[in-house]
Write a structure and sequence with these properties.
This is NAD(P)/FAD-dependent oxidoreductase. It holds the Pfam family DAO. It is an enzyme of class 1 (oxidoreductase). It comes from Paracoccus broussonetiae subsp. drimophilus. Keywords: Oxidoreductase. By secondary structure, the protein is α/β, with parallel strands linked by helices. It is 32% helix and 23% strand. The protein is built from eleven helices and 18 strands. The strands form three sheets. Strands 1, 2, 8, 9, 10, 11, 17 and 18 form an eight-stranded mixed sheet that branches. A hairpin with a 5-residue loop joins strand 14 and strand 15. Helix 2 runs parallel beside helix 6 and helix 3 crosses helix 4.
Amino acid sequence: MKFVSYWHDTAPAFVGGATGPVAGHYDVAVIGAGFTGLGAARKLAEDGRSVVVLEAQHVGFGASGRNGGHLNNGIAHSYLGASAEYGAEKARALYRAFDAGIDTIERLVSEEGIDCAFRRAGKLKLASKPQHFEGIARNFEAIHAEVDPETALLSRDDLGREIGSDQFHGAMLQKKSAMMHMGGFVTGLADAARRRGAVIHEHAPVTARREHGRGWELHTPRGKVTADKVLLATGAYTTDAFGWFRRRIVPVGSFLLATRPLTTDEVAATMPGNRTCVTSMNIGNYFRLAPDNRLIFGGRARFSARSDQQSDAKSGAVLRRALAQIFPHLAEVQVDYCWGGMVDMTQDRYPRAGFADGVHYSMGYSGHGAQIATHMGEIMADLIVGRIDRNPFADLPWNAVPLHTGKPWFLPLVGLYYKALDKVQ
């Protein structure tokens, strides 16, 4: 078993990084070479701005290369809950922003010729308990009538043609949802940004910053740059140099495994519908087939704020038990990959984007970011140059998490709370 991301291990490496020292002055400095940062860098460079990307590790190292490979449309929240909190108009706007995110990815895949197995597969929100199906059905009725007619409600009997498990009591199908090879896409997006003139420095973490005229001077171990404007796109990997954001982002571990490639018969017995799937538990699971027919199976196996081989291995054991419960016929299947990564959670699990603490930012995707992060990069690029403000999260307040200074000491308590909820709800 490899304790590395399947997406990292099976994608071509980005080879277009700058090899010289970190130096010079730029119109915009982007911190973080994930989907958000690269989406912004490509757009800015295409518009003729000088742009530098500073990445602490390698392109796609963080959440963009460690997720489950889903591009699920619509908000992750209850649509009815969003309508009650923000009103129907705002709920529709938030829902459609995630739909637009998938459209942006599809456009870029086509325009840039990115080889990433993009496919509109559809998503199943699976009801883990009978009462969960009742809630899913109410949510479906509002979504289908108000914002997304490309949805369907599936009964337990309907699921037989979709998934080889008797653990679920029905589902909502969102047909616009997609999937892709995340490693292939992030490398292709980096190549596109570089072709348009963006300078990408890997292994160049920003360790400090200070004001420089009307802009910023950013320090890295490989040198420093100055920039008129800065976009922070680091999510759960945000460092102490940006403490304002650290107090508002809670990094939570999310863990995955990938089996050996399944046989044709095993695919038919496991995922005949070949869609992305998410269960309805608070501490639930998500899964899909990879392009080579591995089952990629993930979840919040442990409430941890770290991901390393020891932590990933413990979480992998938890995931294996969950996989065996959902798919008993795969209980003994060989697991080839096991990995983890950090999710940038906000208190209410809505993303945040805008301008604060002297920098532009987009983050807090809360486990639902792969589908909107690239899109938000383009939106922030337009905002930075003053072209248009299309930011769907601009009016959401963002207060610091009480007693949180950047290290989420409270995560084990949160985990116990959600486990208790799953037992009674």
